[in-house]
């Protein structure tokens, strides 16, 4: 019997509400893999420790990621 | 007595070796906060589940983040 590849994504539903950078405690990116065919982005809110799954294609995520990667990297162009 | 703000960063040392996107199991971004003054990026390797702290300013991280945020977002400019 061939092993079935069970799909095990972490996110059940995607929350499209924007997340304020200040409220963000942690941002997890789980790349697509054999266990889940899509990229998953899970944020943990700082105060409540509530977890939310975000849409990787949303503008909110893109600006969050940009913010983080730009942080403290001041360089000449 | 005022509460002292103890510094509690997750990363002790930063690993500058590049991470292959395929080997990446999870990428965590922890923004700077009162408990740790710097952005921390922790990757978990897929097979070994080994955790590594990466330099947020490294090119390796920037391209990893770009890869993820570009994934499946095909749009007209």
Task: Write structural notes for this entry.
The structure is a homodimer of 77-residue chains. By secondary structure, chain A is an alpha+beta fold. The first copy, chain A, has a domain at 21-70: OB fold (Dihydrolipoamide Acetyltransferase, E2P) (Beta Barrel). Helix content of chain A is 16%, strand content 22%. Chain A is built from 1 helix and 3 strands; from the N terminus they run E-E-E-H. Chain A has a 3-stranded antiparallel beta sheet with strand order 1-2-3, with no helix packed on it. The N and C termini of chain A lie far apart (57 Å). Mean pLDDT of chain A is 80; it is low at 72-76. The interface between A and B is medium-sized, with 24 and 24 residues. Strand 1 of chain A pairs antiparallel with strand 1 (24-30) of chain B, so a sheet runs across the interface.
């Amino acid at each position: 019997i061939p092993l079935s590849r069970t799909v095990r994504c972490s996110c059940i539903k995607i929350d499209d509400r924007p997340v304020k950078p200040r409220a963000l405690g942690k941002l997890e990116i789980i790349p697509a893999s054999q266990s889940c065919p899509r990229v998953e982005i899970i944020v943990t809110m700082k105060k409540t420790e509530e977890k939310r799954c975000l849409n990787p294609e949303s503008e909110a995520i893109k600006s969050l990621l940009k913010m983080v990667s730009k942080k403290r990297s001041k360089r000449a162009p």
